[in-house]
Request: fold
Amino acid sequence: MSSYCVIGSGISGATIANLLSKKNIVHIYDKARGPGGRSSFKRLKKSKGFDHGAQYISPKSIQFKKFITNLRKKKF
Ligand SMILES: Cc1cc2nc3c(=O)[nH]c(=O)nc-3n(C[C@H](O)[C@H](O)[C@H](O)COP(=O)(O)OP(=O)(O)OC[C@H]3O[C@@H](n4cnc5c(N)ncnc54)[C@H](O)[C@@H]3O)c2cc1C
Reply:
């Protein structure tokens, strides 16, 4: 088992960290206060906030459509 360090917890970092974590030890570091990068939700007050970037995903390739379908089936 190897150890990996992923810098950034946006969709790219989170995806590679998730794949690597199946057979390795993974540490994720992010300079921001919370995870998600430009796909995160920024909270201003208790009940108010806004999407920092991505609001929706439009998968076009078959592989990406499969990836999203499997992701939607998962329970977090
Ligand atoms: C306003 C806006 C609207 C958008 N709308 C959509 C949409 O509707 N649909 C869509 O598919 N895409 C949309 N996008 C694009 C999408 O949000 C991005 O392409 C995607 O989120 C990028 O993910 P990423 O992981 O590559 O980078 P990021 O999300 O930017 O993640 C990078 C992470 O790395 C961290 N980081 C950077 N440097 C360091 C460092 N030196 N040390 C530690 N951590 C570091 C950052 O804090 C961040 O968390 C939008 C983007 C914007 C700005």
Summary: The first helix runs from residue 11 to 20. Residues 3-39+54-73 form one domain. The first strand starts at residue 3 and ends at 7. The helical segments are 11-20, 62-73.
